[in-house]
Design goal:
CATH superfamily: MFS general substrate transporter like domains
Strand content: under 5%
Distance between the termini: 60 Å
Shape: globular
Helix content: over 70%
Structural class: mainly alpha
Radius of gyration: 22 Å
Number of strands: 0
Order of helices and strands: HHHHHHHHHHHHHHHH
């Protein structure tokens, strides 16, 4: 089990590195292919859109494929997408390559989360899933800063070559350590789509899109914010990104046990504290030390949201959790694209480099409202079930009395 979780964490490490490395190398990519930095920022959206499309489509296509085999196929596609990114000679082809690299992202995380949760006892499922997500957060400590530094010194293409190598290592790890998990008799695209019709699944996905959009509204512009407002040099931004990753890792570590114990309260607290941290960063970004402390806290609160949303969707989808788990990452990448877009609009409107913090806080609070709505609906649903059960019991007792008479 530990080796299988480690293999899944390696996959998450590669995904986290390729997803966020582009953000740290936007100036170098823009210079290399002859476009402006804002135009190069569309590459971030290209990857995100690939995730949005790929998660439901690839999960649906592979609905009857055994989980291990599907993980291997998706990892192979991940490697191909990053090699294509490294070789792309123009912006158009690089845009297409980033879209291709993003296609397996959500399905890999979705299938991986289901596999991880089934490796342990049900009461430890969230901890197992959070261990897989540790690969994503450690990528922000090691993978993203290393790939950013590599891209700054050896050219941006070298970062994508490095990610392709990580993908090959992940592929080998999955083949060696992940056990075979057969599909159930009810597996199939119709079964998965039927589970996606649950209202709680829809609200959970909306919570991820809106609430996590607040995180990405700031993260997408963190490097220019630090260099233009805080006064941190370009060479030091890799260390700041590593600090961000430390915060994300700490948030992921505590998210597993907290989610196993109290899922919805963990989600509520994460969104509320994320909003508070983003408002705080609006003021602390002007001073180096307070800014760094706030950045670490933002990373922690952003990661604290991930595990409870993932487990909520898997629970509400019941016997068909794979597409719901994968679609969670479509939702996160819609948040990526939407948050980056809204943050960019605020900057373009002349509100200043710090304005994405307020945009992000508003989105986090809106996500909290959606999460509360889902919680209230869940509570009402349970009350209805209790009332219906009670009425059924009374009806049975009455029938027994009547028959006895």
């Amino acid at each position: 089990m530990p080796l299988a979780l480690l293999a899944l964490a390696v996959v998450a490490f590669g995904i986290g590195t390729t997803e966020f490395a582009t953000m740290g190398l936007l100036p170098q990519i823009a210079d290399g292919i002859g476009v402006s930095v804002p135009h190069a920022g569309n590459l971030v959206s290209a990857y995100a859109l690939g995730v949005v499309v790929g998660a439901p489509v690839l999960t649906g296509i592979g609905a009857r494929v055994p989980h291990k085999r599907l993980l291997l196929l998706l990892s192979g596609l991940f490697v191909v997408g990053n090699i294509a990114s490294a070789l792309a000679p123009s912006f158009g082809l690089l845009f297409a390559a980033r879209f291709l690299a993003g296609l397996p992202h959500g399905a890999l995380f979705g299938v991986g989360a289901v596999v991880a949760s089934r490796l342990v006892a049900p009461e430890r499922a969230a901890r197992a899933v959070s261990k897989m997500f540790l690969g994503l957060t450690i990528a922000n400590i090691i993978g993203v800063p290393a790939s950013t530094a590599l891209g700054q010194h050896l050219g941006w293409r070298s970062a994508y070559w490095a990610v392709a190598v990580i993908g090959i290592i992940a592929l080998a790890s999955l083949a060696l350590f992940v056990p075979h998990q057969p599909r159930g008799r009810q597996s199939g695209i119709r079964h998965e789509l039927r589970a996606m019709g649950n209202k709680q699944v829809a609200i959970g996905l909306a919570t991820a899109v809106v609430g996590f959009g607040g995180f990405f509204a700031v993260y997408s512009y963190l490097v220019p914010m630090l260099t233009n407002v805080t006064g941190i040099s370009d060479s030091s931004t890799t260390l700041v990104l590593a600090l961000y990753g430390v915060g994300m890792t700490l948030g992921t570590v505590i998210a597993g046990p907290l989610t196993d114990r109290a899922l919805r309260p963990t989600l509520y607290a994460g969104l509320a504290l994320l909003a508070a941290a983003l408002v705080t960063f609006y003021f602390t970004v002007h001073s180096t030390v307070p800014a760094l402390v706030t950045i670490a806290f933002i990373g922690a609160m952003g990661s604290l949201i991930t595990t409870p949303v993932q487990m909520l969707l898997m629970a509400k989808a019941q016997n068909a959790p794979t597409m719901a788990a994968a679609s969670n990452h479509s939702a996160f990448n819609l948040a990526n694209a939407g948050g980056a877009w809204l943050g960019g609009l605020a900057i373009s409107a002349g509100w200043g480099w710090t304005s994405p913090n307020l945009v992000g806080a508003a989105l986090a609070l809106a996500g909290l409202g959606l999460a509360f709505t889902g919680g209230l609906m869940d509570r009402d649903s349970r009350r209805s079930e209790v009332v219906a059960s009670s009425r059924a019991e009374h009806s049975t007792e009455a029938d027994q009395v009547t028959s006895a008479q």
